[in-house]
Amino acid sequence: MDNEIQKVTHVQNIRYDRQAEALYIIDQTLLPNEEREICLQTAEEMYDAIKALKVRGAPAIGICAGYCMYVLAKSVRTEDQQVFLRKLGEYGEYLNSSRPTAVNLSWAIRSMLRTAVENVGCTRGQMLDALYEKAVSIHRDDIDKCTKISEFGLTLIKDGDGILTHCNAGPLATSRYGTALGPILLGTERGMKFKVFSDETRPLLQGARLTSYELQRAGVDVTLICDNMASMVMKNGWVQACFVGCDRVAANGDTANKIGTSGVAILAKHYGIPFYVLGPTSTVDMDCPAGDDIKIELRDPEEIKTMWYEKPMALPEVQCYNPAFDVTDHSLIAGIVTEEGVIRPPYDKNLKKLFARKG
Questions:
Q1: Rounded to whole angstroms, how far apart are CA atoms 338 and 189?
Q2: pLDDT of residue 9
Q3: What is the per-residue pLDDT for 30?
Q4: What is the DSSP letter of 10?
Q5: Is 247 an active-site residue?
Q6: Which CATH number fits domain 2-147: 2.40.40.20, 1.20.120.420, 3.20.20.70, 3.30.70.890?
Q7: What pLDDT sits at residue 4?
Q8: pLDDT less than 50: residues of the chain
């Protein structure tokens, strides 16, 4: 597994060392200036890694959660399987509370818990082996999905196109090629040339710290812009498509993604530029009717006032509103690119058809 991942991406954001029985992630809060792995051993370290964005991106969070649940399962020292299941369920609830908007987190935790239940009656060793294999399958499945998403996304652009991105949905946020960056990286491998405009993505600067980092390393022509410059580059005719990832897609096609995404979609609509959402079907929540039903995470105001500054940029008593995500209305989305293909409007009908086909 480890060797396979190293072959397909320069950045191995999550890896489980089976020989050392240890889970490692790249601490994304240190990028781009330092690329350092940290080891996650306790539930508290795992919660902090997800909450503090040391690991981030909906698919990557799901992959990490799978391995986390395996590590935590190993820490439950009992042969009583009901006690084991109860404790593992408690760990799952704790991890899931770290970031409620990204559906992949809860999806991966449920998958691991379901695997545990399916193996009741086995020995503890067999149960742990089954959980490890499930975590690996979640990882491999994402690699496969990202590759397919990249192929389908590549059909939407042509050599020489300008593409605007918001936040980060490359290998660091997923696996292999990524989702929103996948078509760009795959096309570049095949000799195509793109001009990418990377929104810095306030307030946590994922576009500046991570997207431009990944694209520059991959040899892509990337230009970093402030979020409020997107309108200008669109007006100048430099952008032919917008590609963004997603943290949750509602059954009607409304999409939650990093704060500022809906503004990009509105601008793109005004300038007649197609706006595409790229993500695996695991990010689609058919139990969530519409965007209004998506819980939006509110984060620490200090991310706006002090986090990136030598001195505070606002008085201590100034109030801040700091939502991590916003919801882009389905009417602004030209297509949702999944591993099953490009889904077009009407999304309420076509997403339902997609999942009926998948069973």
A1: 21
A2: 41
A3: 95
A4: S
A5: yes
A6: 1.20.120.420
A7: 38
A8: 1-9
Query: What's residue 7's pLDDT?
Result: 33
Superfamily of domain 157-358: Translation initiation factor eif-2b; domain 2 (3.40.50.10470)
Place of tokens 């994304």: 28
Say which amino acid occupies 17: D
Residue with tokens 């899931």: 96
Amino acid at the residue 70: Y
Cα separation, 84 vs 79, whole angstroms? 7
Q: What is the pTM of this model?
A: 0.88
Pick the catalytic residue from 27, 161, 227, 247.
247
| Distance (Å, whole) CA 128 – CA 70 | 7
Amino acid at the residue 349: K
H or E stretch at 257: strand 255-258
**Phi, then psi, of 322 in degrees rounded to 5:** -130, 70
pLDDT reported for residue 176? 82
Report pLDDT for 13.
Answer: 93
